[in-house]
Amino acid sequence: MKRNKTTHFMTGMLIIFFTTIFIILTGRFMYIQATGEIDGVSLKEFAEQKRTSSYTIPAERGKIFDENGMTLAYDMPIYRMYAIVRKEYSENSEDPKHVVDPEKTAKVLAPILDVDESTILKPIKSGIEKNKFQVEFGKVGNEVSQHVKEQIEKLDLPGINFEEHSKRYYPNGTFASHIIGFAREEEFEKDGQVTNEIKGIAGMEHEMDDLLEGKDGYISYQRDKYNKKLLNPNEVIKRPENGDNVYLTIDQKIQTLVEDVLTQVEEEYSPERITAIVMNPKTGEVLAMGNRPSYNPNNPADVGNWYNDAVSTPYEPGSTMKIFTWAAAIEEGVYNGEEGFASGSYQVNKKTAPINDHNNGKGWGTISYDEGFARSSNVAAAKLVWEKIGPDKFLKYLHAFDFDKKTDIDLPGEVAGKILYNWPLEKITTAFGQGSTLTPIQQMKAATAIANGGKMLQPYVIDKIVDSTSGKVLEQKEPTVVGQPISEETATEVLSLMNSVVNSEHGTGEKFKLEDYTTGGKSGTAEIPNPNGGYLKGKNNYIFSFLGMAPIDDPQLVMYVSVKQPELEPQEVGSDPVSFIYRNVMQNSLHYLNINPDKETEETEESLIKTKVPKVIDENTKDVEQKLVDSGLQVTVVGDGDKIVSANVHEGDMIIPQERVILVTNQPKMPNITNWSNRDVSQLADLLELKLETFGNGYATSQSIEKGAEISKDDYLAVELSPPGQDENSEKQKENIDTEERIE
């Protein structure tokens, strides 16, 4: 009886327990069924989220152009290759959609991707063994070019697929790399998810990153377990907002000329540093700016110099500073150019070290201050500051020329020089460019006051910002006068003194003479501080420089060149590499800009005889071609159309024989571009709106679009380039180089 009572009690307790559990579970299920929620989470929304795929639609990063619309930076499509390895993905499909034969797939892909077969086969087999849906191929498959992708697609390999993304591309390589900078794809967390975006790292890409990057869109849809859209996918699309385009003041032809000449000097003299700037003194526009060492932004590895020395590296300028010392004396009314002084050595008091002229203090006897400028006399500069102007007033002129502050040029990383002006010797040595430091761009800004009637202009490299979708100009830069440190009369007199440096019998700048233009300027030989104190010694241990203008009566271009520690032969001097750069760039840039020569010349070379371009747009193809050919121009007609719709020249342009003229007809077809320069290829791609990808450097040796093929906007063109002399067409390429040197 006792056992039965216990059994009944335990049975009752179990019934109560299980009944309670049943009521709780039933109640919970009824609650879930009624509300559709668990812990405040909607089951409907949770289910939709689980079967909904959402993908970012990346915005296209804005392009960077030169002032003439030549593309300098753009997003180039590249592809991530992956393989689907799960057999179930091919169910209910007529053709297989997964990798059927791993060995064959690896054998075919390996030579195209230039890898071992195992690089392809190993991840495919590993994915199959681990029952993965798809596999990727690491670095080999992450940056597949469109050209390679198209080769693979022609093989029709089952299971091999591609996903498009973008890579920032710079069609001109090292061209203006310190100005343009570079951008690259970086991984970071956004809204709780890891994502990749192209971000500006250096130069204009970094400075204008917010404007260039745009805003991403997205697409979402409901899918099955194999990621296929449902019949009613509830698709949502938000379109991306592409980034704005940035137009620079850089002129592609002048910049290319600077790059070519800097490279020649770098190869011949192996200097520590080179810097060159070309500027329009009437506007403040920087037309070219280059440094060596440089780098290729398409592959910024082993960069020898990240700094844009033109704006980021102050140093003692040397005698180019004398331009502004003489300007201060003239403006102050204490200058008499015909007055004589004793050159050679000058000491203001016994406590101050003597100042010596650059010929070891020998001087040239008693000479005038005008001659002292032409001969670059340190003594003349010191006496002007100490005895004529006065150190305190001279400091005011240094401030008036903004030597105590940044130029605020629209480039990142600018560093201002420093005026050392505490002791009598520092005040004197500043007069001829020792002690105090300046950047090249600070000197160029001050030089605009000399070239522009006393008005000093703000230097800038961004011309305008343009909406990439509508083409509307969002911001347009205008010339800005930021000061007037001297009068127009003073500026005119300083120009005359600069003229004497190059063209008088006593001038130190004879090597800087131009054939067709009268140029003036001031050379500099700056000592380099020794980390252990004092200055470095030796023939090569200087920064050799020149600040010049032309035509000197009304300067249209101002140029600064500096070469640090070139390796000179015994018979060579520091002005040799500097003058080589200056002469080549200034002479050819002035011709290119159609500046009328101010010197009579017997030059009759074909390269300097220019032809005025007639109207070409909307004109008959054969008529235009005949006119240009008769003028001695090299003409390439693109297509078989009877009307010209675009060209790389404009009506009224002055061009020289053998310059390539590209005429695009209303029925464009791909021309043979073998032996074309990178510049000509880029111009053709811009005119035809092709997506260009180049491989190598030099001149075209192969093209992905065959000659005579019809072409459309956004077609992909891959071009292989080789330096002259490396293939059977080397002689023809050499002819083209000679032609381009004459053009530039």
Automatic annotation (TrEMBL):
It is found in: Membrane. It catalyses: Preferential cleavage: (Ac)2-L-Lys-D-Ala-|-D-Ala. Also transpeptidation of peptidyl-alanyl moieties that are N-acyl substituents of D-alanine. Pathway: Cell wall biogenesis; peptidoglycan biosynthesis. Residues 729-744 have a biased composition (Basic and acidic residues). The chain crosses the membrane at residues 12-31. It is an enzyme of class 3 (hydrolase). Its EC number is 3.4.16.4. Gene3D superfamilies: 2.20.70.70, 3.30.70.2110, DD-peptidase/beta-lactamase superfamily, Penicillin-binding protein 2a (Domain 2). Signal peptide: none annotated. Belongs to the transpeptidase family. This is serine-type D-Ala-D-Ala carboxypeptidase.
